[in-house]
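QA checklist item 7 of 12: single-chain prediction sanity check.
[x] sequence parsed
[x] length recorded as 409
[x] structure emitted
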Amino acid sequence: MTVLDPYAFPSPIAAGTDLNKIVELVASSGAEQQTALDDLKTLAAYAWRNDPVFKPYYHETGFAVAANSPEGIAYMEEEEVVGDKTDYVALNCAEDFRGIMREGVLTGTFPGWKGYLRKKDGGWAHARKACVSASSEAMRLGVRAVCGTPRGQVVGLLYDSADGDVTGVRTADGVSHFADRTILTAGAGANELLDFKKQLRPTAWTILHLRMTAEEAKLYSGIPVLFNIEKGFFLEPDEDAHEMKICDEHPGYLNFTQDGPYGARSLPFARHQVPKEAEERARQLLRETMPQLAERPFSFGRICWCADTVDREFLISRHPESASLILGVGGSGHGFMHIPVIGGLIADQLEGKLAPKFVEAFRWRPETAINRDWKALQGRWGAERKVMEFQDVKEWTDIVHQDTPSNKV
């Protein structure tokens, strides 16, 4: 197998190449309610805890979910607190929230916050290290990688002139790479290579880091993930650069255009800064939770892209008009969490062995995108509950990035 990518692994613009990512391993309550994603989460949970490729990078610190408006609290209790409710500890006041971490970490007033703490089946994974481990294992097993621009930058698919089937890809250096079967796993960039019939919506989120001293990092180490579905989230500092990741929560940014062969769509672009409005939202999260950190300069920032399907299920399918083209897209905000098992599903689809439940849930389904509402919230909160557009952003940050292994630009 040959992998083509415009960047060397791990890609500095990939959403998965991140300091850390939330990992939630609890499925919905009751076997009769199990969805394909629940089943996938069960497989991922086993892999994060047992697969030597991924196990070292998973930290089961616990997971606290919260909200602060009556509507947000109702949604949280209905949609976010899943599984066995006896595994949760209710958080009803500022004192409750401050008590879930070491003294001196959470010093805010938590205005209007309500939430729940789950001490197991959740935490975070060091995303960049997990991606490096996975790519190293792939190379050990014989995968060949062609990386860099223009050699690894795919600019188009190749088609058989007789039957229209995909026969390979063309890269930016003009070289044609022919293959018996082609797997398209280009994330938010897949929309530029194939007409997905509106099934994918490339959507961007915002990431910021705070640099800490080694002594400070000890105080904040091992803390549970704290995620307010209306405000944002943060995770413990990484063990190498002592950087804490803080993200404001919002329904996403689009980069909408009417141009291109496939009509109106959102197109991804790379930028290692964030809108100033996102920085202010992140600082407000800190003011309510850790005001001692709220005015510190950020050491890193960037936007990262994901491709949302209408129902936020993956799209893992043969293309209906090109039997040799296999699709593995539609991360919809939870792709990284399933990195230990998602490749196996794509391989099963390639070999015609994908379980029927996954075949049905992750099929090619353009009927779901007819008259698609591009501004649909898709269960996400924050930022006045509206999907935003980069064309409306008036000011970006000017963060001076501190060069660390986690912050490679």
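[x] summary fact logged: The longest helix spans residues 36-50.
[ ] second reviewer sign-off
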